[in-house]
Design goal:
403 residues, Rossmann fold, 2 domains, 7-stranded mixed β-sheet, 4-stranded mixed β-sheet, 16 helices, 43% helix, elongated
Length: 403
């Protein structure tokens, strides 16, 4: 009976799948589907329990099957992700494609700290296996499109600090400082006095060591601290890859806290991932459910419109918005390439399920950014109601010869 169901399944999928693909069963039987030709990717079902995932596919179910070892991938992982999106798209209704509810999570300090630890404290060696040498874990910036990852990440940091018009002697707060690359560059090359905060103990320890090694302890302080517990005022504030953890309902309070910490004539820049769904619902086809379960517990992505509204509600005027979606697609593709190149070393560092989660997560996100399911924006702000006398008339200062 199930043999006939599989044959019918393969036949129905043939016109809907963009690449030639194959399903190989545990007993040696094979079913080809998708476009005709030699399969670019093979899904190998390791036992009969895998069929339930394949016959009713969504991205979270297919991802779970791979993480649990029910299926394996033969071929390029990028082709496997393209196939997974096609399978999920062909099997789900329009309602499922749109995504889930607006907001599902309750955020507080302890839950947020646990979520950050789960994601970022895998191990420093794990992240170093596929990030650039400075361990910048956020979207890079490609001025030409052919730069290597290290160059593009340095360009991203310089773009942020230049947009902020950071000057020697000014104070900078970096919310979600990662392993310290931005504050180190801000202190060493721009002459700023910096505070970097993170909820990840691994990042905190690593960043402090880097500050000491660079001889910048008099200009850079790294804190293991929640942004809600920071006090004082800063000339400049950056937040890179952090507001995704805040929660949709908390965004006005998040921007309000930035407003409270910002000097009256200061500038703040938020660099964060957004959804392309105008109602700020989940990423479609089950991708959001997979990420919440396995990668980013409690993460929520706002639509750009919601982020801009929340910034205004928080007392900030938005001065400039830049879409870096293509840049993140390329960044993730390079991360995935590094991950694939260093598979053997990475397998020694983490368990098989963790390896599988991150393998499909990185290239899956690259696909999502490439196809406009998610995006990323840099939003430059200052306090609302301020005089605009100190602002440049054009965006020219952000680019080229200035840096």
């Amino acid at each position: 009976m199930w043999e006939r169901n599989l044959a019918r399944w393969a036949e129905q999928l043939r016109p809907r799948i963009a690449i030639p693909a194959r399903l190989a069963l545990w007993d040696g039987r094979e079913f080809d589907f998708g476009r005709h030709g030699e399969p670019r990717v093979t899904l190998r079902a390791n036992d009969a329990s895998a069929l339930a995932y394949l016959l009713q596919p969504s991205l979270d179910r297919l991802g779970e099957a791979y993480v649990r070892g029910k299926i394996d991938i033969e071929g390029r992982v990028a082709d496997a992700i393209e196939l997974a999106f096609d399978l999920a798209h062909s099997a789900n209704s329009r309602l499922d494609q749109i995504g889930g509810v607006l907001s599902r999570f309750s955020h507080n300090r302890s839950r947020d700290a646990e979520a950050i630890a789960y994601h970022y404290d895998v191990s420093d060696q794990f992240y170093a296996s596929w990030l650039d040498p400075e361990m910048v874990y956020s979207c890079a910036y490609f001025e030409r499109g052919d730069e290597d990852l290290a160059t593009a990440q340095r360009q991203k940091i310089d773009l942020i600090l230049t947009k902020l018009k950071l000057e020697p002697g000014q104070t900078l707060l970096d919310i979600g400082c990662g392993w310290g690359a931005l504050v180190l560059r801000a202190a060493e090359h721009y002459g700023a006095h910096c505070v970097g905060i993170t909820l990840s103990r691994n990042q905190y320890e690593h960043a402090r060591q880097r500050v000491e090694a660079a001889g910048l302890a008099d200009r850079v302080e790294i804190r293991l601290q929640d942004y809600r517990d920071v006090h004082g005022q800063f000339d400049r504030i950056s937040s890179v890859g952090m507001f995704e953890h805040v929660g949709l309902k908390n965004l006005p309070a998040y921007f309000n806290r930035i407003n409270a910490l910002l000097a009256d004539d200061g500038l703040a820049l938020n660099h964060g991932i957004t959804t392309s769904d105008p109602e700020s619902r989940d990423t479609p086809f089950g991708a959001g459910s997979f990420i919440d379960r396995y990668v980013f517990p409690g993460g929520e992505l706002p639509h750009l419109s919601l982020a801009l509204r929340a910034a205004q509600q928080g007392g900030l005027e938005v001065l400039d918005v830049e879409n870096l979606r293509r840049h993140y697609a390329r960044t993730l593709a390079l991360w995935s390439h590094n991950f694939e190149q260093n598979q053997e070393a990475i397998r020694e560092l983490v368990s098989d399920p963790i390896f599988r989660i991150w393998r499909v997560y990185l290239i899956g996100c690259a696909h999502a950014f490439e196809h406009d399911l998610i995006a990323i924006y840099q939003i430059l702000c200052h306090k609302a109601g301020r005089s605009s006398g100190q602002l440049d008339w054009s965006r020219r200062y952000m680019y080229a010869e200035h840096r």
